[in-house]
Amino acid sequence: MRQDIFQAIADPTRRAILSLIAMQALTPNTMAEKFDMSRQAVSKHIKVLNECGLIRPEQSGREIYYHFNAKKMQEFDNWLAQFRQSWETQFNQLDKVLATIKNKKNEQ
């Protein structure tokens, strides 16, 4: 079953894995050393991230290195953008209200 990006990033361990490999490509063994869980459990998280396209494997000799796929993360950012614009509008309106209140206090 193919995972979607939202299912993948819902798990804190998978988000931590993404943070790690955003800095540099890592092998599954190297990733497993960073967590207090078995190599097999980390591999299951890697599988989910790979299925949704957030990471991509690259074979290098006998090792597989996983790289962060920033293009796929752009889908998540695009989804958030609709909310970001709404929040910014509301914060701008709040700034105007607060500025009006502050000006009225200064006039008194």
From the alpha carbons, calculate the radius of gyration and give it in angstroms: 21 Å
- Measured as a percent range, the helix fraction is 55-70%
Count of individual helical segments: 5
Mean pLDDT: 93
**Main pleated sheet:** 2 strands, antiparallel
Strand order of the largest sheet: 1-2
Number of E strands: 2
Shape: elongated
- Measured by DSSP, the beta-strand proportion falls in 5-15%
Would you kindly provide a written description of the structure presented here, covering whatever features stand out?
One of its GO terms (molecular function) is DNA-binding transcription factor activity. Residues 1-88 form the HTH arsR-type domain. It is built from 5 helices and 2 strands; from the N terminus they run H-H-H-H-E-E-H. The chain has helices spanning 5-9, 12-23, 28-33, 39-51, 70-107; strands at 55-60, 63-68. It has a two-stranded antiparallel ribbon with strand order 1-2. It is elongated and about 75 Å long. The relative contact order is 0.13.
Put the structure in a nutshell.
This protein is mainly alpha-helical. The chain contains five helices and two strands; from the N terminus they run ααααββα.
SSE map:
Blueprint: H1 5-9, H2 12-23, H3 28-33, H4 39-51, E1 55-60, E2 63-68, H5 70-107
Antiparallel strand pairs: 1-2
Helix pairs in contact: 2-4
Key traits:
mainly alpha; HTH_ArsR_DNA-bd_dom; 108 residues; Metalloregulator ArsR/SmtB family transcription factor
